[in-house]
Amino acid sequence: MTSRSSLVLEGRKSHEWAKTRMRIIDRIIKDLSTPKALPLEGIRLGICLHITKETSVLVMALKAMGAEIALCSANPLSIQNDIACFLKDQKIRIFATRGESYKQYHDNMLKVIRFKPEIVTDDGAELHLMLHRYWSNNIVAGTEETTSGVTRLKELELGRKLKYPIIAINNARTKFLFDNRYGTGQSTVDGLMRTTSVFLPGKHAIVCGYGWVGKGVASRLRGMGAIVTVTEIDPIRALEAHMEGYEVSHLASACLYGDIFITCTGSYRIIRKEHIDRMKDGVFLCNAGHFDYEIDIDYIRSQDRKPKEIRPNIQQYIVKGKCVYLLASGRVINLVGAEGHPPEVMALSFANQMLSIVYLAKKMGSLETKVYDVPEHIDRRISEYALNSFGIGVDQSNGKSF
Ligand code: ADE
């Protein structure tokens, strides 16, 4: 049993390590703060993110900029307990324990709501949706990290039900071009390999969805020697995948030969009974989307009430006499089976969070109730911070056009 103090120490080491890979975060604190004024002085922030070493760097940065913080997790299985202990030790109000039940997970969100935050940062929009149910007058604005969350918030906006302005962090180019594509690409393969030790060369990997996440996952799997098939419903994306050199097929055909299936769509019930029943013996099923509804897990569970726990995050089900390995219970494999995106890429996403939160704090009360994109000047500034930190310069336009 790991003691609390050793968890704090482990968490501190991981936090410090991530910080060295996320230098732009410190740079931003320095640029926005003066000895007399902190940009978030006294602002009450409610945060619902995956509790990782990278998130700890963001949280400590927001604290250093003067914010009061309450924090819960965007997923009960993605919590890194050493990081949770470290943050608690740093006097952050954190409500999260790895493996917490669904009820605890919701109760922890309610604790963040009871903290009466003024600005709320979410990943997946669970906390935003809960705030729309248990309305608190304190809220002035919010940010949303991920594609699935932004989709849900846009639906609220469309139905005129949105209650406060929200910046869609996901829609910044310095977020989705890097985090969704390269971050998820690398960390999903990392999660798959840490969980299963699977040897990828020659394996048929079926990537469902060719958005930014699917693009990243397909490219990294191919780079490791897998033979990749893409399935899509959007003809333009399917054409893109084809021109990129992937096999593009219906899932109804790919289910017959795939060894590994990875859902990257953000949509409901992509892999269903009619596919699972026809798969080969011993396939791996996993999900890279935010929610655990892309694979019809209820169907798999209905076929075998007593799955075998092969090892952490591998459950073996027998379906129609064949073995199906469900990874990470169909939850987001990169965070449950590995450590999520690497710090370098999270630095970009979290720089967007920091600058957007400061922007919202400045604009307090003056924004319309809608879903905003990250302002263009913030997006560009982050690319400059990042290039600068990598020691890369870019040319200036000579101002001439033909
Ligand atoms: N989402 C994906 N990877 C993440 C990470 N490392 N930290 C926080 N949120 C994430």
How is this structure best described in words?
With 402 residues, the chain is an alpha/beta fold. It is 45% helix and 16% strand. The radius of gyration is 21 Å and the shape is globular. It starts with a helix and ends in a 13-residue tail after the last helix. The mean pLDDT is 96. Adenine binds next to helix 3.
Helix content: 40-55%
Low-confidence stretches: none
Q: Decide which structural class fits the backbone.
A: alpha/beta
The number of distinct β-strands equals 15
What's this model, at a glance?
By secondary structure, this protein is α/β, with parallel strands linked by helices.
Give the SSE layout:
Layout: H1 4-20, H2 23-32, E1 44-49, H3 53-64, E2 68-73, H4 81-89, E3 93-95, H5 102-114, E4 119-122, H6 126-133, E5 141-144, H7 147-158, E6 166-168, H8 173-196, E7 204-208, H9 212-223, E8 227-231, H10 235-243, E9 247-248, H11 251-254, E10 260-263, H12 273-276, E11 283-287, H13 297-303, E12 308-311, E13 314-319, E14 322-327, H14 333-336, H15 343-363, E15 371-373, H16 376-389
Parallel strand pairs: 1-2, 1-4, 2-3, 4-5, 5-6, 6-15, 7-8, 7-10, 8-9, 10-11, 11-14
Antiparallel strand pairs: 12-13, 13-14
This protein binds adenine.
Adenine binds at residues 49-50, 52, 54-55, 335, 340-341, 346.
